Amino acid sequence: MSASLGAELRKLRHTRSLLAVPVVAVVVTAAATGVLMTWIEASEISDRLSMHGPLRFGPTNIGLVLLVFGIRAFGDEAHHGTLTAALLATPHRHRLLVAKSVVSAAIAAATCAVTWVAVLPITAAGVARRDLDMTVDAGATAALFGRGLAAMVLVALLGVAFAAAVRNRTVALVAGIVWIALAEGIVGGLLRIGEYLPGAAVSGTVTGGGHDLGAVASAAVLTCWTAVAYLAALVGLRRDIT
Amino acid sequence: MSTAAVEVSGLTKRYGGRAAVDDLTFTVASGRVTGFLGPNGAGKTTTLRILLGLVQPTAGTALVFGDRYRDLARPTSTVGALLDASGFHPGRRVRDELAIHAAATGVDDDRIAVVLHDVGLEAAAAKRVGQLSLGMRQRLGLAAALLGEPRLLVLDEPGNGLDPAGMHWLRSLVRRHAAGGAAVLVSSHVLAELTLFADDVVVVNHGRLVSQSSIDDLLAAGGERVVLSSPQRAALVDILVASGAAVEVDVGADDATSAVVTGLSAAAIGDLAAAAGLALHQLRTEVRSLEDVFLEMTDDGEGIR
CA geometry: angle at A13 spanning A7 and A14, to 5°? Predict the structure, then answer.
């Protein structure tokens, strides 16, 4: 397993386009925070750190990016025909899935942490420069960070498993993005099951109180979707590599 | 008792009603280069992918040193495989791609420089894979296969994209590897190519075994043969067989006079016919190339068994 993990880390290190995905997420979130703290009306900026938009909605937004990262972490192998070499080195296919999952989860957690590290000083600088009043409610903020971290890890894992089940990067990317950005809202609205769908479960896990289910139940829903994706992945990985 | 490097037994793979591999049995010995020969679509690649655990067989077994590939403790240090030269990420550098393979194989990074030297890609180490020609990607695939110093090399059409100098280099590399005691299984659809460096040859067609022999025996099947026509064929055939010739009379459904003879010259056949008072209407010598032998072996319903 250590050889598989080492190989996965090297793949990430030597694949610029894949490494760029979480980097872009951090940069865009940091830039958006700068815009918010510079130009948005003071009344639209929360007076509590745990309700601060970039810390609540930033992770929700980068969730889509991390879904793409997870899909690409496995989908790139199928897309470039490198899955054969990966499975020659790791013939037990579930071990390859585990290795990719571990590395993707670590990247998702790191992305979430780095995003916060980027957002907090920008927020502090904006608060100081505009002489705003923002309470640092440490306990609630730490809980928000924990929920964001859990959601980001789960959504990246969902991407890995979905791509492993589909084994076609383009199909997985289009289906994942279209579902989260468009189809889920329509399906959820029509069937009145919105909060039980994966995209809503991500935001529900991060923001908690804004959804009927609450953070814990949303996290449970997201975990269930991820588990279903892994079951599908284990079935998909049994298919022949031709 | 020594274990064969590769032992394929009763291997079958069906896709729906079509058999891509059909009850295939053969072995590959260590220290020898074994050609795996067959026309396109004969089931060679499917067989190799089953051997390497990438495709699940419908029936039968394909073992590497007595074990299934997936049960090998260090698979890429036991078997080096080149299946598809396009199986590399185009955005990665050659050296980085091999570093990934080295990590996956569990070998030290020092091996990267060694295999780059072995395959002549030192100058291209910093190039991105997308910039390489097909021939250079074949060399990169071989470098990846050699990283773990495997006891078995499995190469699927390794000559694709290689120029004559590249082919010469490939033959030398394969021979060197076998001389060191390793087994090499090389698939190809060109018999002439295999005769230059293979010790043994396994011929398949429609997923079935056509023959397994040494390359020398296969080459002996080439050469001259004599086609004759006689209204007294049966009597002539008896005389020719008694004289040590091999005679094939099943040369045409409505042809009761013709036969194909190997092992006797046209002059000797003519002399035997004259001595026996038998009429000959036709007697001509055909020279068969290796390609003729191969085509004959893989011709539907006419295969040599």
Answer: 90
